[in-house]
Automatic annotation (TrEMBL):
Region of interest (Disordered), residue spans: 1-23
HAMAP family: UPF0303
NCBIfam families named among the record's database cross-references: PRK02487.1-5 (NF002696)
PANTHER family (alphabetical): PTHR28255, UPF0303 PROTEIN YBR137W (PTHR28255:SF1)
Species the sequence originates in: Streptomyces rimosus subsp. rimosus
Family statement drawn from the similarity comment of this UniProt entry: Belongs to the UPF0303 family.
InterPro entries from the UniProt entry: PduO/GlcC-like, PduO/GlcC-like_sf, YBR137W-like
Entries under Pfam families matching the protein: HbpS-like
This protein's name: UPF0303 protein SRIMR7_25905
Length: 175
């Protein structure tokens, strides 16, 4: 039987191996999804693209984009609630602390056979290593902000952000 054993340790080497594989995939996404610049207009365009993708998919999500301490874009689609805003806050804190996507941070803990909630020593009411918040990383600079989604299962939140960032970078390359 797999799952938690009550001590914050995951049972089963298969789960840890799957998490290690996931870590490699998520690291590759972060290497690939790097921007050359990111201003207010970029946040607006990326936010609109992300919102349009969510609408096309019928996804009830909240979208949030920040640079430093400033919120540059926020949209709550029908079917969302203030709980989605709270999830975004918690996931973005993970990105700000670790400079990696919230999903990658959670996967790193799972790869070690642990859970973020019990092993990070961070308040789970303030930090959530669940998929959906991704670093805005500038080439030659590093992480300067976050783009986040909440409303879907964590893997789907993460995939929506990655899809939008990939499309946005591709569009900018074509301009």
């Amino acid at each position: 039987m797999s799952g938690m054993n009550g001590t914050g340790v995951l049972n089963g080497t298969d789960e840890r191996e799957a998490a290690r594989h996931q870590v490699r995939e998520l690291e590759e996404q972060e290497r690939r999804l790097v921007l050359d610049r990111f201003g207010n207009e970029d946040a607006w365009r990326l936010g609109c693209l992300l919102t349009d993708l969510a609408r096309e998919r019928g996804a009830a999500v909240t979208v949030d984009i920040r640079r430093g301490g400033q919120q540059l874009f926020h949209c709550a689609l029908p079917g969302t609630s203030a709980d989605n805003d709270a999830w975004i806050e918690r996931k973005c804190r993970v990105v700000e602390r670790y400079a990696e996507s919230s999903y990658l941070v959670g996967a790193r803990f799972r790869a070690k056979g642990r859970t973020f909630e019990e092993s990070s020593r961070l308040d789970p009411d303030r930090y959530a290593a669940h998929g959906g918040a991704f670093p805005v990383r500038l080439r030659g600079t590093g992480v300067i902000g976050t783009v986040a989604v909440s409303g879907l299962p964590q893997g789907d939140d993460h995939a929506l952000v990655v899809d939008a960032l990939g499309r946005y970078i591709e569009q900018r390359t074509e301009d």
